[in-house]
Amino acid sequence: MENFYYAQNVKETLESLKSSLNGLSEAEARSRLQHFGPNILKQEKKINPLKIFLSQFKDFIIIILIIAVLISALIGEYVDAIVILIILVLNAILGFVQEYNAERSIEALRKLASQKATVLREGKRFEIDASELVLGDIIILETGMIVPADARLLEAINLESQEASLTGESTPVQKGTEKLDKTKILADRSNMVFSATTITKGRGKAVVTATGMLSEIGKIARIVTSEANELTPLQKRLKKLGVFLGYLVIIICFIVFLSQIMKDPHILELLKNFELSVFKQKSFIDMFITAVSLAVAALPEGLPAVVTISLAVGVQRMIKRHALIRKLPAVETLGCVTVICSDKTGTLTCNEMTVKKIFVDNKFVEVSGEGYSTEGKFSEKTKGLLQLLEIGALCNDSSIGESISGDPTEIALLVSAKKYGIEKPQLEKEFPRVDEIPFDSNRKLMTTIHSIQDSKKTVRKKLVAYVKGAPDIVIRRCNRILVNGKIIKLNDKERKRILEINERFALEALRVLGFAFKEIDEKALKEKSEKSIETDLVFIGLQAMIDTPRKEVKEAIQKCRDASIKVVMITGDHKTTAVAIAKELGIEGKAITGEELDKIENLDNAVEDIAIYARVSPEHKLRIIDALRKKGYIVGMTGDGVNDAPALKKADIGIAMGITGTDVAKEASDMVLTDDNFASIVNAVEEGRIIYDNIKKFVRYLLSSNLGEVLTIFVAILLNLPLPLIAIQILWINLATDGLPALALGIDPPDEEIMKRKPRNPKENIISSHDFIIMLIIGIFMMVSTLWIFNMYLPNLRYARTMAFTTMVMLQMFNVLNCRSADRSLFKTGIFSNKYLIYSIMVSIAFQLILIYSKLNSIFEIVPLTLNDWLIIIGSSAMLILVGELIKLFIRAITKTKLENKLLK
Q: In 3D, which of 464, 446, 466 has the Cα closest to residue 524?
């Protein structure tokens, strides 16, 4: 049943919803949330543990092995069948744990990236998760917000919303609070705002009238899907690699199976005569199970889950370092970033502006104090100072008190006013705001219109427009100036002098705002145009403030330089201010303004030399991104406003501000900075490199170890040797070595030199040709060691297999240490620096000891080993470390030679 809230006035709506202008109480909000449910369009499917567990048995080769096990059981080979089945179940449990943890990690990330909403409850402002909104909640609406629920407007000041997602109309809709007729269609309900639409202009308050699937967007079943479930480019490449390896391994296993059959005359005779009794022969079943087991061991089936876990764990680490990843592919891209284009204010600087100098009544006034502290003094108090500070406080949407909220520049103006004793709430009672023309980046102005008592204190009120903005824009719109209480004509000489003062302030890295006012009449108010209100103004003065660079940013920029990452500053501030801050931070390069940028026809040719863009609009960012990408750069771009959204989407990594950023900017981004700090971007880049490195380590370990197993079986057949490993032994190796040690590699500590390398080429394969050669050498060594020991203990086949089996396990334990670095010595990396890896190796070896020295040894067809046997196994296995070190030494020598040759050229 439809509720016609748009056909009710504000009072009736609040009464219908049993709410008030102060909002609901916390207890009532909790009660309604329990009754109506969360404000979500679609309940995400909950993780189903049973489904994840059963999915471990979907693999084609696993299914074949299960069929073989069943056949073994049917012909009476119960022990082998049960043992192999147990190993398969244990493997499935390990896979389940990996995948379940990966799903839970992704779900946690999804919750962290969820939309927020600002509500009034019991008269106090709170930021809550949008899913917790309930009917009757009072929500605060501001430019750049995505509306979190359907709501009836209670207050609308120059409010416009983009409702294309509902109505298909791309033009923003002007909003108001007037009661409407019941017959109004959705597109004409101007006193309503709707879930998932965007506030493009103005501000307001509204009471929630529908949530979740009962909202208009819910009714048309607009389903919001999460990109967190999409495979990343790396996962896609690994999937292709897995398919390729699958075909290759199946071919090898088929050859192994055929070669075994060729050795058995009895089986061969049965096959020639097409006798079905062949399938009941134990030797035939053993051959088949061995071949399939080899395929199971050779294929890196744990790879996708471990990659997902590595990505998710890395993203969790990033959150601790103030970077929230919204889309998993961004993790990979971070490691490839070659240029970071950063906004200045709040990202490179502290975002706590402090007014330091004022120009008023043709005098300079110094202001003491730091940050948002209201402790401070004025070097001089002139006649116009009070009015200048009042304009700064009234033409202002921010607030200070028990909490501080709003734009840092506006907060600085409130702080400077409070230092004089001016309280904004009291001032607003005396001079109430009746209308406004909001700030926008194109006009670079903000105007508020106030009603004030005239000097004679008659009944009649008069209207005054207070204007603040970029000094050059403000002065251009002024034709008079207030000096010592008198309004005089503003001539060109005085205008030039004020601009020179503005320039002087800017050279000191001060951000400057100009202030002006003008009395207007009702007609001008009704027209509310720039021409009627923001022209022929009276100039009153300048306030100059500074936003000091963040202490940690200078070090972060140096880290970028070491990592061959170019840093570009983009700001709306004056060029001289931008250059001064850039110099202090160590950003080197040419500086240009937006005006100069517009005159450059081919930015592609100039972009590499430019490091500072000043006085630019968000639209310029698109040109900068295009030019950089054409030059082959991988671009990270920051943004916080509605107009930044296109640039954030177009950049390789769109980085939104978590504190000052609009919902639209966050929605368009790949990453959100929870502290708005440039250093957090660099930390995220470092984490991106670490994650990719650890995934490479895991892939190297898994593939080189699996290659060792396959080569051991394959070469043994070529040499006409008995099989050195039987099915259950192969499966056990897969279980013991591909599990815990491999996972521990995913959280390996980073290489100390990780931020001194050049960014990775995004087209680079995770397994390069030289990686494959290294893995092949490792695999060959594992094969040679295993077969050498196996042959040494023949003709006692059970003893020889025990030695080969244990040697292969120990080789893989040493290999996991080797794979911690592709070119850095293990001893420099630190053998014990990853305690989880050491623990996992100890657990794997402990399992092997239990197998050898317990009654399980008869099931696995192995025998207890002597101390001398262990010395031989450990001695030969440990040689793998030496082989690995020699390979790394060779790689370092080749790299050094290439670098020297490059320098000589």
A: 464
Enter the tokens of residue 88.
């398969």
Torsion of CA 766, 769, 775, 781, to 10 degrees: 180
476 versus 405: the higher-pLDDT residue is 476
- The predicted-structure confidence for 551-567, as pLDDT tens digits, reads as follows 899 999 999 999 999 99
Residues 375 and 406: beta-carbon distance below 8 Å:
no
Which regions of 309-376 does DSSP assign to beta strands (E)? Answer: 323-325, 339-343, 354-360, 363-366
Encode burial over 735-747: b for 16+ CB neighbours within 10 A, e otherwise.
bbbbbbbbbbbbb
Q: Which amino acid makes up residue 283?
A: S
pLDDT category at 387 given cuts 50, 70, 90 is: very high
Please tell me which residue, 789 or 104, carries the higher pLDDT value.
789
Structure tokens at 871: 């010395």
Structure tokens at 317: 């680490």
Q: CA-CA distance, 134 to 126, in Å (whole number)?
A: 14
Task: Report DSSP state, residue 351.
Answer: S
Q: Read off the amino acid at residue 186.
A: L
Is 343 tagged catalytic?
yes
pLDDT tens for each residue of 743-784: 787 778 888 888 988 898 877 777 777 788 888 899 999 999
Give the whole-angstrom CA distance, residue 358 versus residue 15: 50
Closest CA to 560 of 498, 636, 447: 636
Measured CA to CA, the distance from residue 481 to residue 713 in angstroms comes to 93
Phi, psi of 703 (to 5 degrees): -70, -40
Q: Which amino acid is present at 374?
A: T
Burial 455-483 (b: 16+ CB within 10 A, else e): eeeeeeeebbbbbbbbbbebbebbebbbb
C-beta separation of 612 from 593 below 8 A:
no
Which secondary structure element, helix H or strand E, spans residue 104, and what is its range?
helix 78-112
For residue 85, what is the enclosing H or E element?
A: helix 78-112
d(CA 392, CA 411): 10
* pLDDT for 903 beyond 60: no
Helix orientation angle between 78-112 and 303-320, rounded to the nearest 10 degrees: 30
Instruction: Name which of 130, 302, 330 is nearest 230 in CA terms.
Output: 330
DSSP 815-872: HHHHTT-SSS-HHHH-TTS-HHHHHHHHHHHHHHHHHHHSTHHHHTT-----HHHHHH
**What domains are there in the chain, each with its CATH number?**
5-44+116-228 (2.70.150.10), 231-315+688-904 (1.20.1110.10), 323-349+551-676 (3.40.50.1000), 354-546 (3.40.1110.10)
Buried b (16+ CB within 10 A) or exposed e, 48-85: eeeebbeebeebebbebbeebbebbbeeebeebbebbb
Residue 222 has pLDDT above 50, yes or no: no
- Reduced to 3 states (helix: H, G, I; strand: E, B; else coil), residue 468 is strand
Contacts of 327 (CB under 8 A, 6+ apart): 227, 228, 230, 670
From CA 824, how far away is CA 829, in angstroms rounded? 7
The pair of structure tokens assigned to 567 is: 């840093």
Rounded to whole angstroms, the Cα distance separating 891 from 381 reads: 72
> Given 137, 343, 663, 738, which residue is catalytic?
343
Query: Given the structure tokens 């108090």, which residue do they identify?
Result: 381
Chain centroid to CA 406: 25
Q: Beta partners for 483?
A: 486
| Complete edge-to-edge strand list for the sheet that includes strand 566-570 | 323-325, 671-673, 653-657, 635-639, 339-343, 566-570, 610-614, 590-593
Specify the 3-state DSSP secondary structure of 115. coil
Dihedral (CA of 388, 394, 400, 405) sign: negative
